[in-house]
Amino acid sequence: MRYWQTRNGTLVERILWGWSNVYLVSFDGHDIMVDTGPAAFSGLLLKRLKETGLKQLDALVLTHTHFDHTGSVAVLKEKYNMPVIVHNTEAHYLETGLSPLPHGNIPLTRFLYKLGAPRVEHKFKVMGVAGDVLADDVLDLTGFGINARLIHTPGHSMGSCSMLIDDQLAISGDTCVSPFPGRAFPPWADDAASLLKSWERLLDTGCELFLPMHHWTISRETLLKEYERHSKKEVKGVVSR
Q1: What single DSSP character describes residue 158?
Q2: For the segment 18-51, what is each residue's pLDDT rounded down to a tens digit?
Q3: Listed residue (118, 125, 105) closest to 230, CA to CA
Q4: Any residues with CB less than 8 A from the CB of 145 and at least 6 apart, and which?
Q5: Staple 71 to which of 28, 38, 91, 180, CB 3.0 to 4.6 Å?
Q6: Contact, 155 vs 189, CB < 8 A?
Q7: Please, what are the domains in the chain?
Q8: How far, in Å, CA of 154 to CA of 192, rounded?
Q9: pLDDT tens, residue by residue, 127-156
C-alpha cells in the first residue's frame, strides 16, 4: 500500500494496486473510498479494508462505471451500507450492472475494439446497485467529511469524473493513465476531443499530482506536456480530414 498526504492533512491510501487502483481518502475520522476494482478482487479488497481498521465508509465515489471499477460495489454496499456516488449519465449502467466497453484510443486498441468488443460486452456485466447521489458538473464532498469535490471529466466515458482533494491531489479515474513513464494518454477512450478538454479542466485546478486508477502517478508537468503534444495531434487531424 502507498500513501499521500495533502498539506491540510488529508490522507490518501492506495489499498489496491494492479489491474485497477482503489483509494481510501481519510480525514478526521471520515473515510471515502474511490472505485472498487473488479469483482475478482472483492475478497482482497475487504481484507485490505479490515487491515486499515476501517469500521464505516462515509461514501463510495465511482469515477465511472466500467466493470474493473465497480465490480465490488454490491459487496461493499452490503457490508457498509454507504451512499454510492456516480455521475448521472452512468447511473443506469450502475443500476443494471451493464459495462459498455470503451473505444480504442490508439491504433492497437482501435483494432481490438473493432475486432468485436460490442459482441462480448455481456461477459463484463457486474451486480447492479442503485446510485444514492447523482453527480452533475461539480459535486461538493465536504458534507461527507472530506475537503474535496467531484468534477465531470468526460472522454474516457461519458460520465467519467475526477475527485479533487484539498486542491492539491486529484484522483483522476481513467481520464489520464500512465502505462509508461512520462505518458498520460489512456489507450481506451470514447472521445479523445472531450478527453483533452477534461485535461484542460484538470490543469486549471491547483492540483499538483494525479492519481489514476491504473498504473502510476502523473505529475502536473507530465500532464501539461502530454496535453500540449496531443492537442497538436488533434489539430493536425482536424486539418487533414
Answers
A1: T
A2: 889 999 999 999 999 999 999 999 999 999 999 9
A3: 105
A4: 27, 28, 29, 30, 31, 32, 58
A5: 38
A6: yes
A7: 2-240 (3.60.15.10)
A8: 9
A9: 999 999 999 999 999 999 999 999 999 999
